[in-house]
User: What shape does this take?
Amino acid sequence: MRTYIYIDAFNLYYGALKGKPYKWLDLKALFEKVLQPKNQIICIKYFTAMVSPRPNDPEKPNRQDTYLKALEAYVPGIEIFYGTYLTHTVNAPLANHGPNPPIVQVLKTEEKGSDVNMAVHLLNDSWLDRYDCGVVVSNDSDLAEAMHLVKKQHSKILGVVFPDEKRRGSKELMQYADFTRKIRRNALKNSQLPERIPGTNIHKPPDW
Assistant: This one.
């Protein structure tokens, strides 16, 4: 069964990878474990945005760039699409400070474009009959309408893989899914890229 995978990188990172030693992730190896043998993975579409350095982590963009290059060099059938991160200052009340909490300024970072890009590609690839099964890797309910249209107009098989194994999956996505899965820690552990990507000078970042 021809299978296309659509990955919301922001959701994947914060749902499955943040704070864990599995960020050097081989995406094809992972989804070969998560899905069934009948799912022939033709293409993996990875939707992300380039991060900016932070005062406490100036190397963050370099690690991300290294990882994206590793994916392109090692994982067959991968395509990477870029949205943007927007960081701005907002006023917010401090938590746990009673009925009149003080208002402080905080930095808020939002990813823009990836959910729209995913929805467009999921629909377009369906119209072009590129897959029999489309797999959405996200817990973002904004993708529900795109899934609805794919089911209504093309009757494709759709799956949802939820990155966070402990968090409840989106009901909006599940209503249009033929199957759902969760990414388990053991699958992450056993789906790591080589420390050095063969035929390249790309190495796993030392602090990953």
Strands lie at 2-8, 40-49, 78-93, 103-112, 133-137, 157-162, 179-182.
